[in-house]
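QA checklist item 7 of 12: single-chain prediction sanity check.
[x] sequence parsed
[x] length recorded as 152
[x] structure emitted
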Amino acid sequence: MVGNSSRRPTTEKDTQMEKPVITEEIIPEDRDAEMALLGAMMMGGDIQACSAVIGDDAEHAFYTPQHGEVYRHLLAMHERKMPIDLVVMRDYMRGVGASDDVMGIDFLIELAESFGAPENGPHYARIVREMNDRRKLIRCGWTAVDIAKDKL
């Protein structure tokens, strides 16, 4: 027989399973899609359609926390029927105590310029949702491994 696939574990270390090291390279995320979604929403895209695609897990849908914060502010502004442009948005975020990370005009301009067309917003939202779904599956897998290890 070739290899050691039939060898039984002989030491405690051989029987221990360790959680794999997950690096940035394999965590499912697409920052470009996140930025494109926010840019499309900021520049006249259908915010309601985008939020419907993202679904109820908007709090965790974005890999980049600053993007999630901007998304929440965009939804709040939309619900209040406020106009959305860089000046109004920055003023709104300042008024609600948004983090300094998202109030910088350079950051907002970068987001506003990060999309192909406003009507592509739901497509960008689908990508963001799919990346979040994959991250949730990874977390479920880790939980399953942890539970299985506790039962051994």
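[x] summary fact logged: The longest helix spans residues 121-151.
[ ] second reviewer sign-off
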